[in-house]
Design a protein that fits this description.
By secondary structure, this protein is mostly helical. The chain has 11 helices and 4 strands, in the order ααααααβαβααβαβα. A two-stranded parallel sheet has the order 1-2. The chain has a two-stranded parallel sheet with strand order 3-4. Helix 1 packs across helix 2.
Amino acid sequence: MRGYKTMSAMSGLDVEEVRRRFHSSGIANEFESGVITEREFEERTQRMLGTSIPHERFEEIWFSVFLPGTLMPEAVVEGIRRNHRTLLLSNTNAMHFRGLKQQYRILDHFDAYVLSHEVGAMKPQPAIYEAAIRAAGCQPGECFFTDDVAEYAEGARRHGIDAVQFTGAAQAMEELSRRGVSW
């Protein structure tokens, strides 16, 4: 809602109208699936909202959806990586990921990234899980995946990946411990 509120203030449209336009246009999914470029996304968004925001400000607004901290302690991911290959599987876009890499040092502790805008598919589409399995370099049953969206964890399970819905750091660490993963 932070991004919608800022776009609302800049466009003069009601917050719900901004949200409705984004959802009905499907533009965010097109961007996160790699169907449209950053430039196309920005131009279409500005046209859709009737704004003329400088690029740098547009990027700030688009990135404002993220909280300052992470849900998992960085030390946990860093520790896991000492003995296991770590991958980030994310529905994201180039603009967000660029900002995420700058803001969250935790991302330095992943061996590979499987990103929807690069793969051309979003969770829970099969192609993104297939790309993750290839990037992991192991059998699906040897992979562990957690996601706060139940449908995404279920999508991973359909591909033979050991997956659980993420409900918090303590729960995720407990699930990892049950599987013999230490940090």
